[in-house]
Amino acid sequence: MRKLKLFTGSVNNELAEKISMRLGVPLSPLEIKRFKDTETYVKIKEKVRGEDVFIIQSTSPPVNENLMELLIILDAMKRSSAGRINVVIPYYGYGRQDRKATAREPITAKLVANLITAAGADRVVTVDLHTDQIQGFFDIPVDHFVAYPLFADYFKDKKIKNIVAVAPDTGFAKKTRRFAKLMEIPMAIIDKRRPAHNRAEVCFVIGDVKNKTAILIDDIIDTGGTISAAADALIQKGADKVYICATHAVLSGDAVKKLEVCKAKEIILTDTIPLASNKVLKKMKIISVASLMAQVIERIHSNESLGKLFYWEALV
Amino acid sequence: MRKLKLFTGSVNNELAEKISMRLGVPLSPLEIKRFKDTETYVKIKEKVRGEDVFIIQSTSPPVNENLMELLIILDAMKRSSAGRINVVIPYYGYGRQDRKATAREPITAKLVANLITAAGADRVVTVDLHTDQIQGFFDIPVDHFVAYPLFADYFKDKKIKNIVAVAPDTGFAKKTRRFAKLMEIPMAIIDKRRPAHNRAEVCFVIGDVKNKTAILIDDIIDTGGTISAAADALIQKGADKVYICATHAVLSGDAVKKLEVCKAKEIILTDTIPLASNKVLKKMKIISVASLMAQVIERIHSNESLGKLFYWEALV
Amino acid sequence: MRKLKLFTGSVNNELAEKISMRLGVPLSPLEIKRFKDTETYVKIKEKVRGEDVFIIQSTSPPVNENLMELLIILDAMKRSSAGRINVVIPYYGYGRQDRKATAREPITAKLVANLITAAGADRVVTVDLHTDQIQGFFDIPVDHFVAYPLFADYFKDKKIKNIVAVAPDTGFAKKTRRFAKLMEIPMAIIDKRRPAHNRAEVCFVIGDVKNKTAILIDDIIDTGGTISAAADALIQKGADKVYICATHAVLSGDAVKKLEVCKAKEIILTDTIPLASNKVLKKMKIISVASLMAQVIERIHSNESLGKLFYWEALV
Amino acid sequence: MRKLKLFTGSVNNELAEKISMRLGVPLSPLEIKRFKDTETYVKIKEKVRGEDVFIIQSTSPPVNENLMELLIILDAMKRSSAGRINVVIPYYGYGRQDRKATAREPITAKLVANLITAAGADRVVTVDLHTDQIQGFFDIPVDHFVAYPLFADYFKDKKIKNIVAVAPDTGFAKKTRRFAKLMEIPMAIIDKRRPAHNRAEVCFVIGDVKNKTAILIDDIIDTGGTISAAADALIQKGADKVYICATHAVLSGDAVKKLEVCKAKEIILTDTIPLASNKVLKKMKIISVASLMAQVIERIHSNESLGKLFYWEALV
Amino acid sequence: MRKLKLFTGSVNNELAEKISMRLGVPLSPLEIKRFKDTETYVKIKEKVRGEDVFIIQSTSPPVNENLMELLIILDAMKRSSAGRINVVIPYYGYGRQDRKATAREPITAKLVANLITAAGADRVVTVDLHTDQIQGFFDIPVDHFVAYPLFADYFKDKKIKNIVAVAPDTGFAKKTRRFAKLMEIPMAIIDKRRPAHNRAEVCFVIGDVKNKTAILIDDIIDTGGTISAAADALIQKGADKVYICATHAVLSGDAVKKLEVCKAKEIILTDTIPLASNKVLKKMKIISVASLMAQVIERIHSNESLGKLFYWEALV
Amino acid sequence: MRKLKLFTGSVNNELAEKISMRLGVPLSPLEIKRFKDTETYVKIKEKVRGEDVFIIQSTSPPVNENLMELLIILDAMKRSSAGRINVVIPYYGYGRQDRKATAREPITAKLVANLITAAGADRVVTVDLHTDQIQGFFDIPVDHFVAYPLFADYFKDKKIKNIVAVAPDTGFAKKTRRFAKLMEIPMAIIDKRRPAHNRAEVCFVIGDVKNKTAILIDDIIDTGGTISAAADALIQKGADKVYICATHAVLSGDAVKKLEVCKAKEIILTDTIPLASNKVLKKMKIISVASLMAQVIERIHSNESLGKLFYWEALV
């Protein structure tokens, strides 16, 4: 019978170690190097012929490097006769380029799906795609997990009263609603708009947040501008306290600085993207997806149902 | 040089006639019949060899019949050596099955995209996909148009004051915001939820609608339940008047009845789906997409840019 | 090891039950519904991850509904990581559209093969394709069975003497010959033609049928016109008695009525298409393919040879 | 605009010359050689970049050599950026292996279709496929012509009375009927069977041939056994005279000898396969398909309809 | 579990027998015949459903016959539901047509790779491809072995001193170097060139061969011209003795004669191509690849690493 | 008729400008930016619908960035309905990973070919692929040019006597020979090897270089180690002067330093990769490929033969 073999690209070493420990399956060795001319070289250092291979790699920044590394690993796996090639992508980069918003743009999230398939993947496991529809960019099976039930558990433990879930923009309204429903709390939405020509953008809060604890929820914190402005606007509109939850800690540019100065009391993130030590703030809290990923991998390997891991679905 | 040849499946005869007149290009004959055993038979009654063919067909109810008819037309076109096969799908059915919402579901909107491509389409033109991401379900070019600028023009002519755009649920919040921004009006959202176990669902209105004219906006009116409940809830929350805008008039079940009795003053629809005469209400207003589609077809045929037709994009 | 999981679409419930009983494998639950807007919704209600799945679905009338349902089930299976997806199509609809008979026609039987493959099938099992060549429309394995040995067994039990096999038209001459050879009886052919302009079509009988028991054999009875006229013509030409055998009981329009009044003594059909109760005639006899299908499924599942089930081949 | 460029592989030189003359388009030079190690080498000796290329090559014996030569020409054309690659295959070899007749056989006619497509063909033009369904083995357009109207013209000129069309076996009954209908004559069929165990096969004639002129019609004469036995059987059953018509003169083994000694008065063939001088008999008559092929090529090149060339279709 | 089933096409009977004996797995029966019209017919005479099939077939002369035979076997295997289809191609014909050397040529080695994949192969095992890059013409796994370590073992046993490895042309310089490195001996290269216009080509020897034992090494001996001229040139330049090593004994035209009269003392070949009895010279020595192939097949079947068989790689 | 539209990615701005000037076709605008999170964003700023698009982009360091940028441009072009998408890749990165040299490696040069094709390219134009066989990694047309005739012209103008062409290793022997033949000069080869265990590698010169002007020729100078050691070894073996020619100036690490201190008199490079100002040495000479590329683009656009640009082929 096929053995489970666990590999990690160069992005998620720490997460992969955790998953490996939970699974009781050691990480198999993979030689990855960048030649002086910047070309990526990969060599699989252990037999994969016929095995059930799982490769963990977020396509987080530097996204092009990390994506190409993943594609090259896939090519090596395919040509080495791996039995089944499963790709675990905790953070799926380019997810926001998922449609043509204006004329003559690419749909890079679809391009990436095509590249991953062309390179040889048999299945994708991922967390909090920017839009659910990206699942349909693939014709291979995609097992897609969301992190908000982990955030909900975290807040239930805190036993805070009088909470409101807040979407930082209309694009995240639907997912915020799912979180609100799971928590059985009301919701509000922020609409950032220019009140008139030649005026700066202002955060309008749609819905009631006064004297409440607001939980801002998003999939990605990138430059941190939107979410920190949202947090401050909520306090200004009378919210008592603001928490920020986000699955993917991209944190580019001076995001950390903005998060530090904003009025949010706590920022809850996951480890789909490893956090560089210089990006850690005291008010950050990291929830690991390792346990979830380990269960998923184990069940996929032994052909058990993943359905039970989707308990929040009844609420959708 | 390739000639433009215009065909219609059996769904959009009236719309196709309008497009044909605007283009000054007659509809080419297509024999379509259902045999007694329900099989669809298609025969192209005019030369298409080498021509630039446009086929107009909404995959509206009965969706499986209409979709299969389209696929069979495509197969006939491909085998008859049509030069380029463009499919104009004013209403793209199955658009709401665009992701796995729970375990072991299909993603039928992607399946349909694959079927259309496999049958031989070279390009798709469509209006108001249920989610923009469906563009990325295709690897052939998709020219995607939205109808809300047509609605905006309609309301600008009315010169109503003190308006608010309202999303009937969180899933349509983002598109409602685009409409609101184009109209330079505020927005609100309806969140239909069960206040407690064993209690009926209630429409919560997030945002301020009191003494305002509310414009509810959605892509599809299917059974009409959500939108008519939303209209009534807005009146109850103090809105002066309610208008309903929706691109695709699916109107299944007793939708027309619900729309009739609901408190909306006017219902603005388009002709992406033909409206049966027994479904017409006095308070309905139909805006035709014929002019837009005719321009699109003409520009595609003569390889001109479609960019100018996307004037609303700057606002996205 | 992979488990055998048996599913049925909404067409062949009774046949599927029989197969399930013979296999000792229960039918796995599949939620199939039509929404009010006519869209088909499918949800697999049991784990299929890694399993050896068999889906039973004839693409009988209403063919477009039943075919789309099958394609959607396939998409759901593929995205749910079924181990191997076997499709059992007792009656393959659109089989008669298997070539371009005139200019600018589709080859819908090939289109359907492409759609089934694109949707995710790994193998097809089917009975009495309209032409054997449809096997070659697929690049996945097709296990194709014929029903005439079942008919032959039936007639051997009757121990009738002086029989002739009759093809209702030249298109079925080759298959009739196989049946005749297996039965070791002579054959005749009917050639329906217009004797002169402005004259009605007449059935010419090529070959000797006088004072014989004629067995008319065909793959499909659709509107019943050809076969019932053939039966009457045989009696007129002096045949003693006429039996009609046909694998697929499409029976559209007033076929049942025609069969009732025609001079055939008995009509032998199979259950590849379920017979509505209002279509049952006293002179009909249904031979079930359940036992054959159960054996086929069992052997495919356990990777045994199907060769032994093809005993009639030596005669081809 | 694209130019028409005409090429021939090494099979149909004479036919290609005739087509070239009728078209007024010279044959473009193609270097084709077999190296000493039997490898085929091809070099296109004239620019094809962007041109509308037609390649004439029957896959007649030696079929593997001729097919591989065609595939290599196609690869060269594709890599040389030919604008559109049309393959004219007057005789499509392996056409009789068009289904699995017994277990564990290939469907070589489909394999060949896949190989031709994989090598780069954009379209296929062919004559009298062994079964019409082979059209559906392709997903590229196939323009398929039949030769029997040419035979019909030939016989109409002879003004013979009291004719019967005869199918040499049941497999050709359907096509014989088309010929019979076009000629407005009756038909008969030959059924070659073993009357009892340990007895030699005998040709049973189904239908009436006595005192008539019989026209045996088939697509291929291969070893000539079936058709010459059929001719003799017809004379024995009282036919006055026998003509043999067949499109493809494969004539393998001692076919010519059998044809010579058989009782057929005349044998009418076409030039889809060139006839070696040592295979010519006095009683053979060759009808050229050059004119038909030239018209087809011209119309395809100039994107005109081929429909008018299919005048016999109304009769099907 | 899948069983290993071993088949051979009609080329490598003797080698296949040896492999079969070493594996302790009998050759499974395969009916292969050429019909009189030169068409190849294949029938698999034993169950392959679900099995792990290995097919041994060099595409040696007559290359088109042997390649088509292989493709037809593959099609039969695929349609018979073989579990995994492994192709062992000891000699990969058309390997020298691996690039466009001049304008408007095919890349036949790539075409062949596409044909093998299209016909249904899941994996290729091969020996001494003309260029290593042909591996990359496939997207299925290729396990590629080289024969020069076998030659090195042979010469190590001979314990000859003062040896030099010689490439017969610059194209084989790189592989000669690998051999030289493995043997720890120096190397030289032959550059055949025309010293001036209107002068015959002359073999220039680059490097020092005087008073040495020269080992000429090449992948293929085809017409034998280059290698026998090279052997003679080496003697002329003062080499003591010359050995010729080549993996693939194509030996076309009068190659054997040239080899016989040339000054090489011994010619070492392998059995990737069977040597006809009339091609055997006394000074030929055949080293079998059977043992290597048997190990490879066994390890592939049981999903063991092939890495250990690549011991020479460290030297590359 | 299609217009020629010229675009450049962010690599070859200067070369693209030169090509644009020679063609008299302005560079069309392309917005390319890297977001803060490192994602690449592309927007085509000019209509491409139906046009004949040429995109110039070397996949030079940073190779992953530049390759992904190219793929994203291709996706945008495809979805914007460009008429034909031609990619001009003056330097094809990852070319050296063109085979599995040891077990469980990728063939990244093939992966890259697949990615470029999957992203939407219709044709590739490139210069001096690391191995010619990479042409066969594509199934779309590849127009491949070599730079050594440009080097030959350069040296012919210098009118140096007594020259020898030297391959820096055996892998480049074949291409060095072509250069030598074009120049009508002899050749030598360098074989870098370890004379004994624990000894440093030494450059052995195979062939005669004493008192000659040596021209070292290679496709790529990467870290510069091999070529500068080769230059010094040639001087040590008595060469008078050494020139270095190489097409692609990758120049990674301290390559420039090594080149500066080595004993080569002059280093001739091309502009397939732009040379950063801090990498320019006095003894470097840059020959532009702009004129060649401009001719190629013009001829491809107007469907003229490229054959005449391949004048050196006769020598191969």
Label this structure with key terms.
homohexamer; 316 residues; alpha/beta; Rossmann fold; 2 domains; 14 strands
Description:
- The structure is a homohexamer of 316-residue chains.
- Chain A has 316 residues and is an alpha/beta fold.
- Chain A folds into two domains: 4-146 and 291-314, Rossmann fold (3-Layer(aba) Sandwich); 148-288, 3-Layer(aba) Sandwich (Rossmann fold).
- Chain A contains eight helices and 14 strands.
- Chain A has helices at residues 13-23, 63-79, 108-119, 148-158, 173-183, 225-236, 255-261, 290-301, and strands at residues 4-8, 30-34, 40-44, 52-56, 84-89, 123-127, 142-145, 163-167, 187-193, 202-206, 213-221, 241-249, 266-270, 284-287.
- In chain A, the strands form three sheets. In chain A, strands 10-9-8-11-12-13-14 form a seven-stranded mixed beta sheet, with helices on both faces. A five-stranded parallel beta sheet of chain A has the order 1-4-5-6-7, with helices on both faces.
- In chain A, strand 5 (84-89), helix 3 and strand 6 (123-127) form a beta-alpha-beta unit.
- The longest helix of chain A has 17 residues, at 63-79.
- The radius of gyration of chain A is 20 Å and the shape is globular.
- The model of chain A has no long low-confidence stretch (mean pLDDT 94).
- Chains A and F meet through strand 3, helix 2 and helix 3 of A and strand 3, helix 2 and helix 3 of F.
